[in-house]
């Protein structure tokens, strides 16, 4: 298989009255942290919703090549089965359920007809061991802070054998410490061979973790930055807004 785990080609998506994406290309290398940046409304979330099957095949133009094969995802389950897990800003956890129930919700560990709770708890602890060892898996999710809820989402992704993790503005509502912890986790996942796409408007953190940066502006791809000399806030902002910015 080639260098790229994901290639999205010629992606165009229209909403009534607005072309959200116009012939966009996104090429993500196997094992990298790929940052997707752009001003509000530039099309980042829409591109990721196409990747996840939220907008299914037929509701956009273009091609998704994942692990060397063209994929036509019908829904989010389809993309998750292929190993693509997206974590949205609005978390998809069930607040009234415990951490371990949430991690295995929808893919419970069974012993015949019954859920094997002992194994479920042990597995949840194992997955969390590497992310946040001191997190109590029997707490209800509603009693956790946003930073810890974010980690439970990642644990859920890991329990599903994620190959490509997509994080849409994960640190926008996190404090400094939780943001740092999350970025460290993304880097650790990279060491384990998991590819990430990170959407963020915090350029400092983008520059800290990115291997490649794709910049969207008004639904168009305007830059793909790979050379370290381009990894500067001034360069990224110039592409984001389409003109030079005075210092
Ligand atoms: P970003 O995530 O970069 O802020 P979005 O992908 O959310 O941008 O939005 C891109 C464009 O598409 C914007 O003009 C937005 O208003 C529009 N858009 C996004 N989702 C919808 C939708 N469900 N219906 C209509 N327009 C939408
Ligand atoms: Mg968005």
Automatic annotation (TrEMBL):
Signal peptide: none annotated. The keyword ATP-binding applies. The keyword Repeat applies. Residues 6-243 form the ABC transporter domain. GO terms for molecular function: ATP binding; ATP hydrolysis activity. It comes from the Bacteria. GO terms for cellular component: plasma membrane. Keywords: ATP-binding, Cell membrane, Membrane, Nucleotide-binding, Repeat, Sugar transport, Translocase, Transport. It is found in: Cell membrane. Coiled coil: none annotated. This is ABC transporter ATP-binding protein.
């Amino acid at each position: 298989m080639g260098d790229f785990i994901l290639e999205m080609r010629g992606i165009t998506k229209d909403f009534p009255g607005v072309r959200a994406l116009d012939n966009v290309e996104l090429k993500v290398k196997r094992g990298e942290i790929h940052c997707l940046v752009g001003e509000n409304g530039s099309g980042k979330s829409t591109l990721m919703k196409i990747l996840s099957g939220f907008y299914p095949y037929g509701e956009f133009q273009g091609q998704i090549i994942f692990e060397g094969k063209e994929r036509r995802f019908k829904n989010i389950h389809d993309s998750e089965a292929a190993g693509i897990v997206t974590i949205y800003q609005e978390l998809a956890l069930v607040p009234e359920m415990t951490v371990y129930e949430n991690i295995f919700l929808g893919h419970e560990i069974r012993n015949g007809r019954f859920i094997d709770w002992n194994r479920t708890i042990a597995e949840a602890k194992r997955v969390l061991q590497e992310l946040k060892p001191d997190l109590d898996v029997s707490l209800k999710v509603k009693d956790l802070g946003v930073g810890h809820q974010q980690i439970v989402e990642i644990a859920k992704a890991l329990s599903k054998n994620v190959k490509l993790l997509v994080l849409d503005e994960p640190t926008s509502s996190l404090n400094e410490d939780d943001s740092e912890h999350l970025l460290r986790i993304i880097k650790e996942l990279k060491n384990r061979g998991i590819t990430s796409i990170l959407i963020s408007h915090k350029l400092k953190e983008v520059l800290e973790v990115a291997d490649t940066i794709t910049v969207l502006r008004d639904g168009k791809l305007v830059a793909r930055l790979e050379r370290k000399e381009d990894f500067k806030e001034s360069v990224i902002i110039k592409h984001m807004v389409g003109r030079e910015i005075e210092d």
